[in-house]
Amino acid sequence: MAEVLLTLKIMPASADSDLEAISEGLKNISSGRFNSVEKEPIGFGIVALKAGFVVTEEEGASERLEEEIKKIEGVGEVEVTASHRLI
User: Fold this and answer.
1) With contact defined as beta carbons under 8 Å apart, do 56 and 1 qualify?
2) Predicted confidence band at 15 (pLDDT cuts at 50, 70, 90)?
3) How confident is the model over 25-78, as pLDDT tens digits?
4) What CATH architecture is 3-86?
5) Residue 48 contacts residue 40 (beta carbons within 8 Å)
6) HEC profile for the chain?
């Protein structure tokens, strides 16, 4: 089965959320293979995380990944911003 590289924007639950702890939590996700994470300034002092994960190309894979990320303490919203099929 093919693999897909998903890029996600992860918004903290509040401006006080620990982005380093969230980043470490992303590395322990089991429903996708962690690829990368970087900080992305949003405005008004709020910083989001932009993370990359590789998942199998199957129905529901991105939803499972999003739900698992939302369980990390300090995570507010999760949005898939890009999807690229890997060859």
Assistant:
1) yes
2) confident
3) 999 999 999 999 999 999 888 899 999 999 999 999 999 999 999 999 999 999
4) 2-Layer Sandwich (3.30)
5) yes
6) CCEEEEEEEEEECCCCCCHHHHHHHHCCCCCCEEEEEEEEEEECCEEEEEEEEEEECCCCHHHHHHHHHHCCCCEEEEEEEEEEEEC
pTM of the model: 0.91
Closest by Cα among 62, 57, 59 to 85: 57
Positive/negative CA dihedral, 64, 52, 9, 6 = negative
